[in-house]
Design brief:
Shape: extended
Structural class: alpha+beta
Helix content: 25-40%
Strand order of the largest sheet: 9-10-8-11-12-13
Largest sheet: 6 strands, mixed
Distance between the termini: 55 Å
Number of strands: 36
Number of helices: 25
Length: 873
């Protein structure tokens, strides 16, 4: 009896992925998923492979094992340099050779007889033949190196320059310690000299302190010191010497007599301001960044330009302003150009952009934890989606529905086999399409419910397209299998035609036969869903603020606005500020979707709840985010409401067409053309697919979202509106409702009767997206014979065409003395006072260039035209 791989893995207590790899190693191919089944023969192969892997190689007897162990240890034993036995110096003696046995044994005090050792060695392995010994020459005696003679010269010494502690403290205080230290040293030296030698009379009877320090007219050199004659004491030079001289002169004049004071002349010195050369003004900066809006003061500080200069520039531009006035973006850019500074202006990001930046940040993998999978039931009307879901959960919703059809979105969270699963029941394709159009992917696994008696219907094919566009795994539930005369063969063929190949036929799509009435296959369906969720390992971060999608909203009499929210990531708590579309508010209460009387204080990922506290009803499919401040949420909601109103007044967004596809390509580097294909028969679809595979290019790609048989309906228009696609019909026509809806939504519908017309139009559209190549075509040359200056027109050149012809819509290149002066468009071309389209070779004409009047006689005017050549695939 066939058994699935994951069931066998549970029996063997192995991981499903490990058992899949074992199947491949055992030679069983085509089993790439844990949901695949194994036949009895394949099960026997896997069991035999596992039993073979458990067997271990037998170990031989004790002696052979000991031999192998000893040999391996002997081989692994390496000889070091210390194991070498040096020669004793006696001539003729051989160097003993060490074998593995002797190298392994340790030296002992007791010497064993060699006979016993040879017997033991021979018992373990055959005797080793001795090799000829190696004779080595004795080691030469090593002589001592000669000693170097010591030099008699003394070792070089470093100058010992030390400053007293007073000089060091004065240096820290900001004075000049070196000059003061030298001055004190000089005074001390003079005192010692006076005591050692007798006093000499000074010339002209002057006192000692007025005695000249230099002889003759000799003046000290600027910036350097010199040594006095007859002494080893260095004298001060430069600035320090002049300062010391001024101090001595001042003290002498104060102590002098009145006669000397009257006879002396005082030099009047002007107080000069010392300039250090340091500029205290803020330096002008190069490439800076300025955040807009900003004031004049902020702009001045950012650029390093005085505010008065900026105000002067503004006044020159005719704007009277002050330092606290705000600058708009255009004025700031104009000021940057006037000042010649490169400025990178950054406009303040709105709340929507900041919110998107926060959401785009990936969570830390260490904070991620497992979450429950979200399963959505899709399918045709009256195929048993709600009945099957009621059977799984254990409720009865079908009996209370009006008309027996589902008209609202429902979401539940239940516990099955100790694991939580979130189920979403949709009434049809439109709600799911709107969710996908707004970028909400609330589905992890899509369950496609197909009735066994009806098979694949148009709504079923549409559901397949929606699930494939959402990029989620698909599990097919073949319902109503209990009806008499029902066979699954026809449904398998229809699923295979829609690229859903069942696993029974070697595909990857799981098809479970179920019955909502009898409960057949419900457990298998639930086990399959849990296995798929286990393989994909869905995770979320419960520590961040809650975010998710609004599935539906209504207005309750007692509670007000009640929104059905599905938390996809983070944790939502009572009291959190939530913004959802154009609605905002603080969460007042959260109720369970199954039991309306059950309340929650906080909910984690993959949990649907009914939330109250929003100001208005949000739209189905809008995202909700938990914010920190309610004022920020209010501002974001009002901004979204204004954008929505402007969008409605503008008539909606423009959709892609085959004509404006090149303009859309200029916005993005790689553009995708989505196509919804409708044809009369299945063979036409296959042929069109084959032709479209030939249109491949790295700059653009074609993606077929849906390819079905039949006429164009409103559902196709809804799908094209949500996915921004073009509807292509081959030998079919749209109905009246689809035509009206396409005109309202701006969706383009293209109809064809010949298959090659589709290929030609799409090829032309793709080639039009490619940037054309430009080629220059030379038309003719003309010689300027005379120029006429007219005040109201400019300079008119009277020319003669030397070669080719001159056309009115061409460009002209001015050549003077074999040098190109410039290239300008031709403004006017006349022949005998009449406008001419072209002038041929040998004729005279008048020409006026646009934006250039400096024409001279003898200039050559070369006319040319730039032609654009379209690129091909």
């Amino acid at each position: 009896m066939p058994i699935r791989i994951y069931a066998l893995a549970k029996k063997l207590k192995l991981d499903s992925k490990v058992l899949v790899d074992i199947c491949n190693k055992a030679g069983i191919t085509g089993k790439g998923s844990a949901l695949a089944s194994l036949s009895d023969e394949e099960l026997a192969k896997v069991t035999a492979y596992l039993e073979k892997g458990k067997k271990k190689p037998r170990v031989l007897g004790g002696k052979s094992a000991a031999v192998s162990k000893e040999e391996s240890s002997a081989e692994s034993k390496t000889f070091r340099r210390e194991d070498y036995i040096a020669p004793t110096g006696v001539a003729g003696r051989k160097v003993p050779i060490l074998d593995a046995k002797s190298a392994k044994e340790k030296p002992t005090t007791e010497k064993k007889p060699p006979e016993k050792r040879e017997k033991k060695t021979s018992a373990l392995k055959p005797p080793v033949k001795t090799t000829p010994a190696i004779k080595l020459a004795p080691m030469p005696p090593s002589g001592k190196p000669p000693k170097k003679k010591k030099s008699k010269e003394p070792a070089p010494q470093k100058p010992d320059i030390k400053l007293p502690p007073d000089a060091i403290r004065a240096g820290k205080a900001g004075t000049k310690p070196l000059s003061e230290h030298l001055r004190k040293h000089e005074k001390k030296k003079k005192t010692v000299d006076k005591k050692a030698s007798p006093r000499k009379p000074t010339p002209a009877g002057k006192p000692d302190h007025l005695a000249p320090t230099t002889t003759g007219r000799e003046r000290p050199r600027r910036g350097g010191g010199r040594v006095a004659k007859g002494t080893d004491t260095p004298t001060l030079g430069g600035r320090e010497a002049r300062q010391l001289k001024r101090k001595r002169t001042t003290s002498t004049k104060r102590r002098g007599s009145d006669d000397e004071r009257d006879g002396s002349t005082r030099l009047k010195r002007r107080n000069r301001i010392r300039r250090t050369g340091a500029n205290t003004a803020a330096p002008r900066k190069g490439n800076v960044t300025v955040h807009l809006p900003c004031t004049v003061r902020e702009f001045s500080e950012a650029l390093g330009v005085p505010a008065q200069t900026i105000l002067g520039k503004l006044l020159a531009l005719g704007m009277v302003s002050n330092i606290t006035a705000n600058l708009d973006g255009e004025t700031a850019e104009l000021l940057a150009v006037e000042l010649g500074v490169e400025v990178d202006f950054q406009h303040e990001a709105n709340l929507e952009e900041k919110l998107l930046e926060e959401l785009q940040q990936e969570d830390d993998p260490a904070l991620l934890g497992p979450r429950a999978p979200i399963v959505t039931f899709l399918g045709h009307v009256d195929h048993g989606k709600t009945s099957l879901l009621d059977r799984i959960i254990g409720i009865d919703v079908v009996s209370g529905e009006k008309g027996g059809i589902t008209q609202h979105i429902r979401a539940y969270r239940v516990e099955k086999e100790g694991r939580a699963v979130a189920f979403v029941d949709t009434p049809g394709h439109e709600a799911f399409t709107e969710m996908r159009a707004r970028g909400a992917n609330v589905t992890d696994i899509a369950v496609l419910v197909v009735a066994a008696d009806d098979g694949v219907m148009p709504q079923t094919e549409e559901a397949i397209s929606h699930a494939r566009a959402a990029e989620v795994p698909i599990v097919v539930a073949l319902n109503k299998i209990d009806l008499p005369g029902v066979t699954s063969q026809r449904t398998f063929e229809q699923l295979a035609a829609n690229e859903l190949l069942p696993t029974e036929w070697g595909g990857d799509t799981e098809v479970i036969e179920t019955s909502a009435t009898t409960g057949q296959g419900v457990d298998d369906l639930l086990e399959t869903l849990l296995t798929v969720a286990e393989l994909h390992e869905y995770k979320a971060n419960p520590d961040r603020r809650g975010l998710g999608t609004c599935l539906e909203a209504e207005l309750h009499e007692g509670r007000g606005v009640v929104a059905k929210l599905l938390v996809q990531n983070g944790t939502l708590r009572v009291g959190d500020v939530v913004v959802c579309g154009s609605a905002y508010g603080r969460v007042k209460a959260m109720y369970d979707t199954l039991d309306g009387r059950k309340k929650y204080k906080e909910v984690g990922p993959s949990t649907p709840v009914n939330v109250t506290g929003l100001n208005v009803t949000p739209g189905a499919g809008d995202h909700f985010y938990a914010q920190e401040d309610i004022s920020q949420a209010r501002q974001l909601a009002e901004q979204r409401e204004n954008d929505l109103r402007q969008k409605e007044l503008s008539g909606g967004r423009s959709h892609v067409t085959l004509e404006n596809l090149f303009e859309r390509l200029s916005e993005k580097e790689v553009q995708t053309l989505n196509i919804i294909l409708r044809a009369d028969v299945r063979g036409s679809i296959e042929a069109i697919r084959k032709e479209l595979t030939k249109l491949e290019h790295p700059e653009v790609q074609i993606k077929i979202l849906q390819a079905t048989v039949g006429g164009i309906t409103e559902a196709d228009v809804h799908l094209a509106d949500a996915s921004d696609a073009v509807v292509v019909g081959f030998s079919v026509v749209p109905d009246e409702g689809a035509r009206i809806l396409a005109d309202q939504r701006g969706v383009q519908i293209r109809r064809y009767d010949i298959i090659y017309q589709i290929t030609e139009d799409l090829r032309a559209a793709l080639e039009g997206m490619l940037k054309p190549e430009q080629h220059e075509k030379e038309l003719g040359r003309a010689l300027v014979q005379r120029t006429f200056h007219i005040s109201r027109l400019g300079t008119i050149a009277g020319c003669r065409v030397l070669m080719g012809n001159i056309q009115r819509d061409s460009r002209v290149r001015v050549i003077r003395e074999s040098r190109i002066i410039g290239e300008y468009p031709l403004d006017s071309l006349k022949r005998e006072k009449n406008d001419a389209k072209e002038v041929r070779e040998g004729l005279e004409c008048g020409m006026k260039l646009s934006g250039f009047n400096d024409l001279k006689e003898g200039d050559v005017l070369e006319a040319y035209k730039i032609e654009e050549v379209a690129r091909t695939l």
